[in-house]
Amino acid sequence: ETTRERIQDGIRKYARIVARARERGISESDNRDLARAMLGDMLGYDPFFDVTSESVVRGPYADFLVLPNSPFQFLVQVKHLSIAPHAAHLLRMSGVNTPRYTSWVLLTNTDTWACYRLGVGNGRHPEPVFRVSLSEGGSVEEKVRLFGLLCKEGIEQDSLTRYWEEYRVLNPGRLTALVLSEESLQLLRREIQRQSSYRVDT
User: Fold this and answer.
1) Which of 104, 75, 9, 3 is nearest to 44 (CA)?
2) For 59, which of 20, 53, 94, 188 is 20 to 30 Å away at the CA?
3) 3-class secondary structure for 104-166?
4) In angstroms, rounded to a whole number, what is the distance separating the alpha carbons of residues 30 and 21?
């Protein structure tokens, strides 16, 4: 079974399980167990050695630390199935409270998985990278691709870091800020003047 096949089968399997769990109104504690099962069964992490819920990472930070003995570690914070993941849930990981041992966190209710990069910018705030849902819209192919960034094989191949770097470069807000920067506007004014002999006032 390939990584892609495992993730695709996992999406189908856990979409059904999450739907049943939502109907039955499972507790947040049981939802954490479900998230841990998904990390192992669908995303390829060893639930005994790759995922820890040691007290040092619980409380204000998260429920799990994944790959605790690896240079690339990330946190997983699990919410109740009825609560949609939102950046506001990560306020305790902002500013001076940003964990020093990791730059990544997954926020999930087991249906939606939202990936954030921690400690971004002067305010060291969490910045959204992407989100993917088992039940909501989007092609299976796109879901497999995004979950593939989070799986153990993807992490080992540095896929998430590369995706983040491309996202940062091509992010519309970043491109807008770059285009509207004073340096870019000065170049644009000079080019307009060169081609039309028309001087653009500053």
Assistant:
1) 3
2) 20
3) EEEEECCCEEEEEEEEECCCCEEEEEEEEECCCCCCHHHHHHHHHHHCHHHHHCCHHHHHHHH
4) 9
Cα dihedral 163, 168, 173, 179 in deg (nearest 10) = -130
CB 132, CB 112: distance < 8 Å? yes
Residue 70 near residue 103 (C-beta atoms within 8 A): no
Q: How many residues in the chain?
A: 202
CA distance linking residue 175 with residue 181, whole number of Å:
10
Beta strand ranges found along 16-78 (DSSP E): 51-52, 64-66, 74-78
Q: Which residues does residue 77 pair with via DSSP β-bridges, in sequence order?
A: 107
Q: What is the pLDDT of residues 155-182, one digit of tens each?
A: 999 999 999 988 887 665 544 544 555 6
Note the pTM of the prediction, 2 decimals: 0.79
Is the sign of the CA dihedral 161, 89, 58, 134 positive or negative? negative
For 15, counting Cβ atoms within 10 Å of its Cβ (0-12 exposed, 13-18 middle, 19+ buried), the class is middle
Residue 182 has a CB neighbour count (10 Å cut-off) of 8
pLDDT digits over 5-33, tens only? 999 999 999 999 999 999 999 999 999 99
DSSP-based three-state secondary structure for 50: coil
Token digits for 12? 């189908």
